[in-house]
Amino acid sequence: MSLMQPDILRRLDFDRTALWLLGVLGFSLSFSPALVSISLGLMLLLFLLEGRCKARLELVAKQPLSYLTLALVGLHIVGFLWSSDNDMAQQTLSRGWKYLLIPFFMMYVRKENIPFLLAAFLSGMVLSEITSYLIWLGILEPFGKATDIIPSPFMSYPYYTIYAALAAGLLVHFLLFDKPDNRWRILATYGFLGTILINLSITGGRGGQVGFFVLLFVLLMIYFGKRWIRGVAVFVLASTVLFYSAYQFIPVFQTRADTAIEEATHFEKGMQNGSVTIRMALNINYFTAFLQAPWLGHGTGSYLDAYSEVNEQSAYQTRITQPHNMYLVILVQFGLLGGIIFLAMFGFMLWQGWHSTDRLRAFRIAFPLFWLTVMWVNWYLYSHHTFYLFLFLTSVLYATTYSRESRHI
């Protein structure tokens, strides 16, 4: 067997195999963390077995995102030097190193296979959506994270609605900029969009719901171009119809919308207990912690220690200390230096999207604006489900892609 192995490896199409593994990863994102981990492990093994690390790295050497992600990971490592909690620093690094998966995935993305990878993600969402509806309709008993009220079995609902919003945004993009030429595919796309918008409403995560409206606005503005007034009118009409329909016919949407307004307008000093008021207090206290060490921050993983000190003396206290703002968790750990590098990553994504010329240009512009919005309400790029979704779609959308024939590897 050992004598045959080199021949087997020589016959193996590493590009195609890695592409299929990346497709499996994208497909399983919304329902199986285990399958995501297995796919990633096999891709890493494939990378090592191929034995052409230098050639692979050269494929992403000219991609600025490679260096920005490397800088972010470097900060997570160097930040150990002034961290107050080495155990939490190790836990945080176990999240932060994954930024390097962006250039790693990019090594295997080819331009002609981007539709396949996006279709893999959307196909996985079909499975997740069907399961959610079966629970909502009472055909399946709630399992996993699902409840009788919120049918989100595979992950907590704040994360699932991020998936639903991005899937809906992709479908809107296809209908505006890359409409299928087959009538039945067009009807299927409209049908999928309709059902996923309902699914987005019944699963309750307000961050994803707001994020979808951001995607819709940006895509419509780009679609109408110089006729931007018409774009604004279409957005106002569409968003009004969607919001009114969800508010009138979906009780959980109405309840959470009313609760958000009630809590935001009655924010007072003292211990905070509501979802919105807790986030408001967390932002105030984490920002105070950031001001205590604004240049380099408190160090990797030290955000909880820094928050506890501020929270004890704050007029707005919380029992929950987990940060619900991705910007502040970066700023508290790494200061303005970390904040600049973090925002530079999204700035480059916007720049690359703006200067791209293919049919995905509009979504490449909308995608970072979506994340820049939703990261105000949760630390999505430290949370397993949404972090892997970000890594996968970023690598697919912003890879410096080549055809198979032009890669020279």
How many beta-strand segments? 2
Q: Low-confidence parts, pLDDT < 50 over ≥5 residues?
A: none
Proportion of residues in extended strands: under 5%
Q: How does the major sheet shape up?
A: 2 strands, parallel
The end-to-end distance, rounded to whole angstroms, is: 27 Å
How many domains? The number is 3
Helix-residue proportion? over 70%
Question: Rounded to an integer, what's the Rg over CA atoms?
Answer: 22 Å
**Class by SSE composition:** mainly alpha
Shape type: globular
Determine the mean pLDDT.
Answer: 94
Query: Helical element count?
Result: 18
Order of helices and strands: HHHHHHHHHHHHHEHHEHHH
Largest sheet: spatial strand order: 1-2
Give short descriptive properties of this protein.
3 domains, mainly alpha, two-stranded parallel ribbon, 409 residues
List the helices and strands and how they pair.
Blueprint: H1 5-11, H2 14-28, H3 33-50, H4 53-60, H5 64-78, H6 86-96, H7 101-106, H8 114-136, H9 157-177, H10 183-202, H11 206-224, H12 228-249, H13 251-265, E1 270-272, H14 275-292, H15 303-313, E2 316-318, H16 326-355, H17 361-374, H18 384-398
Parallel strand pairs: 1-2
Helix pairs in contact: 2-3, 2-8, 5-6, 5-16, 8-10, 9-10, 9-11, 9-17, 11-12, 11-17, 12-13, 13-14, 14-15, 14-16, 16-17
Task: Please describe what this structure looks like.
- It is a single chain.
- The protein has 18 helices and 2 strands.
- With 409 residues, the chain is mainly alpha-helical.
- The protein has 3 domains: 1-51; 65-108 and 277-409, no CATH class; 115-266, no CATH class.
- A two-stranded parallel sheet has the order 1-2.
- The longest helix has 30 residues, at 326-355.
- The mean pLDDT is 94.
